[in-house]
Every structure is written in structure tokens, then in C-alpha cells.
Amino acid sequence: MAIASGFSHSLFGFVTSAKRAQTKLQSLTQTIAKKIIFNFLQHTVIFGIKLVLTDINQNQSIMLKRFFILCSGVDSDIVNSCSNGEQNKYAGIGATVFFTAVMAFIAGSYALFTVFDNVYTAVFFGLIWSLLIFNLDRFIVSTIKKRDNFLNEFIQATPRIVLAIIIAIVISKPLEIKIFQKEINTVILKEKIEMAMENKKQVTNYFKSDVEKNKAETDSLKASISKKEKEVIALYQSYITEAEGSAGTKKIGKGPIYKEKRAAYDLAAKQLDSLKSTNVKIIATKEAAARILQADVDHKVSETQPIIDGFDGLMARITALNKLPWLPSFFIMLLFLAIETSPIIAKLLSPRGEYDFKQEDAEMGIKNRIAQNRYQSELQKKTDAEIYDKVYTDIKDDKELYNYKKKSALELLKLQADGFVDRQKKSM
């Protein structure tokens, strides 16, 4: 019994250990499987994302390329049948046209902002201006056709080059104004100071006659008072020295001469007091009028100052730009001239490509069809004329038709004769 009991315990422990080992093995197997599946899914997702991004980038590149080709103004049906290199050439030309329009938008918006002083209005009209430049550039590039004769191509492109030069100058000028804004502000500030000084001088000259007349009258009144004061002082010294005996009769005391001189002094003093009381009021009135005139001058100057302060428009800035050294501005204009004319120059200098041959072939086919249609039309016209000539020749020899025509002519002649007779009878 003891042996059987020990064996059963050993067997039970072995089975339990086997189950535990089996559980651990299953857990380990599941963990490894999860890792394998996770790594597989991770790499699959990453690869899928990379594939999608690559496809998106390729699609974006193709869309951008098609957009630039559209900007170049070429025939999409012909260029799509050309090689990738030929398509890239016209995509580059279209990109130049597009970015020229972008520069035109920036330049036009800034120029119109200096005019309207409103961002939304400037952006709106700047967009219209850029679309106009874009359309002109696209037209210029698309109408130049490559042929075997360079001289004919150059003559064909000359008006377009002149137009491109004009466009380049118009686009570059506002950007030059923005680039040299600080220097232009300095020039405009100097001009404003000069204008303010000149304006003040002109306003002062306008009121000068009234101011000078008022000042002269005031000075005259003050001079009369001063003259009378000197006279009173002289009379005062005269009667004092007469009393002291140091002048005049040189007799000390208040004699008859003293009394005469004193009376003259008293009279002059009274006249001085009367003159002062009268002239001081007039002088106060004149000085008040002078202050009013000065206030009018200051008011006129301040009234016209906002006009001078507003001297900051597009024309003023262009004028200020012309006063700066011409070389930097000239090189900027040359840069835009090179950008604007580069598609035309590139098309002139580049050899005839696949697109040019296919375009010429399509045009030649149209010309041939038109020539064939014209020839067939002329031939049909000539054939119809010959047929009608033959028909009328045969009709001319027909006696029945001749007799019918003769009978109709006789009836017509009789009617005309009867009508003539009736008119003659009525007139008699």
C-alpha cells in the first residue's frame, strides 16, 4: 500500500510538471507569434505608407509639371505625345511665365497700396494686374514658332521682345521703389522740408503787405510818442538849468525866463500825456491786428501742411527714385528684363524639338486640307460652268423655245407701245 501510494504521488507530480511545461511552451509560442505578426504588420504598414507617399509625391510632381506646361501656352495634345525631356523644356518656360506673374502681383500690389492705402483694394487690383501680365507673357511665348530660318524667327519675335521689355520695366519699377524705400524716404523728407519752407515763404509774402503796413503805422505812432518824450525831456532840462543858473540867462532863481520855460514844459507834458493816451489805444489795436495777421499766416501754413505731408504717392516716389544713383536701379531693371525675356530668348536659341516638328506637321496637314478643299471647290465651279455652257448652247438651237420667247417678246412690246400711247394722251 505504501509503495502504491508513493507511485501515485510521483505520477501526479510528473503529470503536473508536464502540464506546467506545456503551458509555458504555449505561452512562449504565442509571444513569438505575436512578435512575428507585429513586426510583419509594422513593416507592411511602413512600406505601404512609403509607397503611398511616393505615389503622392509623383502625382504632385506630375500635377505641377502639367500646370507649368499649361502656363507655357503649348498645345497640350501635342506636348503630351512628346518625350519627357521636351515636356520638361516647356514646363521650365511655363514656370518662368508663372513666377513672372507672381512678381507682377507683388509689384502691382505694392504700387497700388501707395495709391489707395488699402491692403484689400491693393491685393485685388494686384491680382488682376498679375493675371494680365500672365496672359500677355503666355501669349508672347505661345505665338513664337520655331522654323528653319533664324532671321524670320527673330523678326517674328521682335514685337514680342519689345512688349516684354515694356512689361519688365513696368514690373521692376514698384519693386525698385520697395527695395530703395529708406533712401527714397530720405529724399522725400528733404523735399517735404523744402516744400514746407517754400510754402511758409509764399504765405508770408501773401500777407506781407498787410503786415508791413500795420507795422509801419505802429512804428510811426511809437516814434511820435518817442519824439514828444525827447521834446519834454529837453524842456525839462531847459527850465531846470535856468533855475540853477547853469544855462540860459545863467541867473539863479525862478525869473521870467524860467516861468516861460516851465510853462512850455508843462504844455509839452500835457501834450505828451494826451498823445500817449490816444496813441496807446491805437497801438494796442494795431498790435492786436498784427497778432491776428500772424495767426492767419500760421493757420494758412498749418492748413496746407497736410497736403505737403501727403506728398508720398507713387509719382513722388518714382521722382525720388530717379534722383538716386541710376546704376543699382538699372541693374535691377536688367534682372527683370532678363527674367521677362528669358522664355523668348530660350525659345529662339533652342534647336527645333519634337514638339516643333509635330506642330509644324499638324499645321501642314491643315494647310493641305484647306488647299485640297479650295482646289476641289474651284474645279467644281469650273465643271459646273462648262456644263451650263453646254446646256445653254443646246437650248439656243431649240425652235420650240425660240418661238415661245418670240411670242412673249411681241406681247411685251405691244404692252409697252400701248402704255406709251396712254401716257402721251394724258399729257395732252
Word description of this protein:
The chain has 428 residues and is mainly alpha-helical. It is built from eleven helices and no strands. It has helices spanning 2-72, 76-80, 84-116, 119-142, 150-179, 181-244, 256-309, 314-322, 326-349, 354-396, 399-427. The chain is elongated. The relative contact order is 0.08. Residues 1-9 and 50-55 have low confidence and may be disordered.
Poorly predicted regions are 1-9, 50-55
Number of strands: 0
Round the Cα radius of gyration to an integer and report it.
Answer: 56 Å
Approximate shape: elongated
Q: What pattern of helices and strands is seen along the backbone?
A: HHHHHHHHHHH
**Helicity range:** over 70%
Helix count?
11
* Main beta sheet strand tally, sense and closure: none
The secondary structure category is mainly alpha
Beta-strand portion reads: under 5%
Spatial gap, N to C terminus: 178 Å
The whole-number mean of residue pLDDT values reads: 76
